[in-house]
């Protein structure tokens, strides 16, 4: 049997660890889909549309480390660019693959369907270059091995998406078999002298400092599980307080004695805000200081920082390239001097845990009561997805038990991300209990993918907070545009069952009804459960109101003269 370009791509995807590839078919990619489907290690996962397909691949990459999304030219890929943008901003190697025009058409000036209707169909590759770390279009079968290997390697090393365009008449064209996969996957080790110099610089940075704190950001996890383990080693060696940025929640154990809370300016948790502002040395690990994580630039640390990134380390007045994060943190753990002064201070500052009262069974449901009951659902097997909206603030306030996972998309912040992303994630981790906390507005963007949860019998629990509109936007800047048409969400998911599905949908208005619905969801394993929680439209977290005020102020800064 002829070995083809499509077979080459399938083999490479399987060799780098892809086991499910997310697809929407189109006549530019059908032969390619046949080749991928034929690979024994790849399972084809159809999605309802290319936005959801790319977001499902984004969520899969969070669990699997790498993912593949296969779409048709132009009408498919341009929607998939959105989930690809999410993967870019969230540092995930999503491999975006698009079918493309027949290689004879360009020179014959043929106008093709699905395109903009001109003769130049290179626009998609040009667009892809902007949302990936490497974008290639295969011109001839002979070029396929070089270009496919280059794009996949670039994505794996940079933890960014890549783009591979396969013309519709090349997917089935004869191609050589791939060489050793190590040529694609071999990581780049730290430069030894840069590593030692960076560690020496750390010692200088910490010398004379009385109150060091470690601040963890979302890029820690993207540097691999070995980086998360190395961070714990460094924390244990230093003995100092460890605070997390909101998008890093779950990347350091919250039951660790040195965990002091989520540092998020005025909406921080525990004693994180006061400890970070009390510090005289800040070891930033994979941090992202954007307008949302700094509460509209009101929570930017005001001391010189040491910043350890995925492949470089910076200090006031120094920069060291090619220093890999895990190796750096492990090395530092062997050289730092123990200094737990910030933990002594934390002992003084630690606030009493908030008194959370359970509502009476018949009480109208409130955001607080939902959070209290959601807290009770979390355990070592839980993976909680929190969607853009007040769900961010409700999720951040929860305590993660050991082993519980937390997923958030705070850099890209695309409402609706959590439904397809949780679907992709749960395919990779069927043994975990995936829960989604999402608002009504977000749910309306990508609701179709609940049907895939039904199709693959995934017992995902969706807690939908129906507060009748775009409340986060109301708090930032209100207007008629923040109102939306209400749906019967509980009924909708039952419509996804068709004749053979096992989705359950229920609307709850009181604390007692929510308890009942959660109990039922706990034992419903044959498919997803959506629990629509109706709360008052002004029932939002005080943190959202504070945060929204400062973000609105940041948006409103007048143009520089
Ligand atoms: C419209 C928008 N953001 C703007 C926006 C618009 N379009 C996309 C794709 N992503 C976005 N974040 C946001 S956060 C809504 O308040 C979400 O509403 P909902 O899901 O209902 O949550 P809350 O009620 O808690 O706010
Ligand atoms: Mg809402």
Protein architecture, described:
- This protein has 561 residues and is an alpha/beta fold.
- The chain is 38% helix and 16% strand.
- The protein is built from 22 helices and 19 strands.
- Strands 9-8-7-10-11-12-13 form a seven-stranded mixed beta sheet, sandwiched between helices.
- Strand 11 and strand 12 form a beta hairpin.
- The longest helix is centred in the first third of the chain and has 15 residues, at 50-64.
- The mean pLDDT is 97.
- It binds the ligand C/C(NCc1cnc(C)nc1N)=C(/S)[C@H](O)COP(=O)(O)OP(=O)(O)O and magnesium ion.
Instruction: Trace the largest sheet across and list its strands.
Output: 9-8-7-10-11-12-13
Are any ligands bound, and if so which? ligand DPX, magnesium ion
Compute the number of helices.
22
> What's the N-to-C terminus distance?
68 Å
List low-confidence stretches. none
- Count of extended strands: 19
Radius of gyration: 24 Å
Apparent shape: globular
Helix content: 25-40%
Strand content: 15-25%
Counting helices, strands and paired strands, the structural category is alpha/beta
The chain-level mean pLDDT equals: 97
* Main sheet record: 7 strands, mixed
